[in-house]
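User: I'm writing a tutorial on reading structure tokens. Could you give me a worked example: one chain, its sequence, then its tokens, then a sentence or two explaining what the tokens reveal?
Assistant: Sure. Here is the example chain.
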Amino acid sequence: MRSYGKARGATTDQPTERIGWSVMLSYSGSAFAAGYLCILVNTYVMKFSTDVLLIAPAVMGLIFGFSRIWDAVSDPIAGYLSDRTSLAFGRRRSWILASIIPVVVTFYMVFAPPALDTFGLTVWMAVAIIGFYTAMTVFLIPHMSLGAEIAPNYLERNRVFGYRHSFYTAGGILSLGAMYILIAAGEAGGPDLIRLRAPQLAIVAACGAVVLFVWLVWTVKERADGTGRAVPRPTKAFGDVLKNQHARRLLIITFIEQMGSAAVVVTALYMTQYVVGVSWLAPILILAFMAPSAASVPLWLWLSKRYGKMSAWVGAMLLTAVAFASAFSIAFMDDLHTRVMMILATALISGFAAGAGGTYSPSTQGDVIDYDEYITGDRKEGAYFAAWNLAYKTAYGVMLFLTGFALDFGGFVPNQDQSMTSKIVIAGLFSLLPAACNIVGAYLLTRFTLDEQECNIIKAHLAQRPRDWRPERPAS
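And here are its predicted structure tokens:
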């Protein structure tokens, strides 16, 4: 444990200041819209592209993989510019406002491709997917940074990001309704009916997102003391992220944990249709995962107070690993009812455990940012959340890339009964990969040392510092 000294009047007791419900609902409401858009794209677009547009899985894997390469450029730029913005409207709200039109336009493009040949459709989807993820970067990094800024203390930060996770997940649950409509359209009228319904649903979602994003920008105010305290050089900002021992470990944990989550999201539709044998089960499966994830947040908030955030998080990851490892057996089950019950049980248990990561991960990121301010005197939430957002999206990109090639390797044939090899590949991606990721992540979390006591001492020091404090440079 690092020695921080004793700030005048400092105590490890938790401050009681809380964020009002109007601010909490406005901030979380925008996460609801983002959850709908992102989860529908993450869960359905791969299958939409391969089964409806008939683009090869490996080609879609390359598109998603390239989008992650582009994120390596766009995420740091978005974080750095957000930190450096000094407009009167706010450094976070200005970027959120600017992101609204690009987000909804590219979302519509994803689900409304025109009648083109295979090459034309491939180009269209590449532009739409990369454009959507870029626009969401411009929204999500300032949005996460804003959440870290408005939370006044350690436990309240858990509350802010816990409710954000609940609303984001609830938006994802609503997107399952859209997915169900599209799946039903495919069974009733084939790909042509899906292509008719998808743009209609996209327009409704885009209008709702605009309303909720504007509500956030209009109602949530930023902290004035953060403006003008960013690092002038981007290399210095991201160098500080990599120098921060807590940030490095949390980046690795985030990537590993999200690799497991991405495996589930990306392969769920394939798993239900081709391994379980019930295509319409996919929305129910994802609902069985998301509903307990959102509903369990109050329990995880209580457990963090009772046992500590890290201990509760480790337990949740180990529970997730056990649940998913069990699901691999589905590929070898003959009875349909048993397969359905097994995969639903896996979703319910792992969804319950996922509420911990959704709450604790961004909350812990905020703690790490406070530690950075203690060391450097700078406020650079944008740079930090850009790094974590890049790790998050890179995990999804890598998983989409691997899924595309793994399906081809396993002999996957769209809309046909699969070989046993193909079923084993799909089941392994859905179960064994997330199980392994969660075991590794749990081990790394046991090595994380920035706890509540340290965070409260750091907060006390920061409260007593002058705004223009900077660390002393060693004499040359």
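What the tokens reveal: Residues 154-219 form the longest helix (66 residues). The CA atoms of residues 58 and 215 lie 40 Å apart.
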